[in-house]
Design goal:
The complex is a heterodimer. In chain A, 34% of the residues lie in helices and 36% in strands. Chain A is an alpha+beta fold. Chain A has two domains: 49 residues; 92 residues, Immunoglobulin-like, CATH 2.60.40. Chain B contains one helix and eight strands; from the N terminus they run αββββββββ. In chain B, β7 and β8 form a beta hairpin. The radius of gyration of chain B is 29 Å and the shape is rod-shaped. Classes of the chains: A alpha+beta, B alpha+beta.
Chain lengths: 143, 145
Amino acid sequence: MSGSVVPSLIFFVGSLVVVSAFVGIANTSITSSGSLISSTGDVLAKDLRSSLDIVHVNASSTISVYAVNSGATFYELNDVRASVDGEWLEGSVLVVVGDGDSLWEPGEVVQVTNSSNNLVQGWHEARLLVQGRIWSPSFTFRR
Amino acid sequence: MGFSVTATHLILFVASVAIATGIASVASGNVDVISSGIKEKTKVTAQKMRTDVKIIHVYPGDENTSIYVLNTGSTVLNPNSTVAFVDGALIPDPYIEIVNRSTNIDNDFWDPKEVILVNATPVGIGKHTAKVAVGGVIDEALFDK
C-alpha cells in the first residue's frame, strides 16, 4: 500500500509544480497582454471622444482651412495637419477662436494655412488629421 | 485512484480560476474605459444633433456689417466660440453681443431662441456672403449692399 502512495504523492507534487508554473506563466502573459490591450483601449476611448469638423476653407492667394474641435479632447497644435486633394498643407497652425494658449481645446477653432495656392478652379476636398490617426470628415469647397 | 482524480480536478479547477480571474480583471478594466469613451461620443454626437444656428439677417452698414444669428437648436452655446467669415475671409476677434434674450437672465450664454449680433468690417457695393460656425454647425447667407 505504502508502495503505491509514495509514487502518487510524487506525481501529485510534480503536477502541482507543473500547474503552478503554467499558471504563473499564463498570468504573466495575460498581464503583459492586458497592459497592451489596456493602452489600445485608452487610445480607442480617446478616439471615441474626438470629433473634428472643418467649417470653412478660404482658397484665395493662400489656402486657409478652418476647423472646430467639436469633441471632448485637447490637442497640441503640433499634432494638427490638413490636406487638400491629398496634398499636405505646409504652413502655420494657430487658434483663431479660443483662449490663446497652445492647446486646441473643445469649442475652439484652428486655422491651418498654406503659404501658396496652386489649386485650379473647381471643386476640391479638404481633410484634417490630428495625432496621425484622427480624421475629420471631408469638406468640399470650390475655388 | 479516487484521491488522485480528486486532486487532479482540484488542481485544474484552481488553475482555471486563477487564469479566468486574470483575464476577467483585464477585460473588465478595458470595458470600463471603452464604455466611458462610447458614452462621451454619444453625448458629443447628441449635442451636435441638437445644435443649430441660422443667420436671420445681415445689415451691410457703412461702419459695420451686422450679422444677426439665431440659436435655432436646443443647446446652450458660448457666443465667443462663434467664428464668422465674410466673403470667405475670417473676421478676427469680432464684436459679439446677445441682442435678443429669450429669458430675463442676463448671462453670457447664448440660449435657444436668442439672437446674437456679430459685427464685421464694412463691405463694398455688390453681392456678398456671410458664414457663421458654432460647434461644427454652419450657416451661410447671401446679402446685397
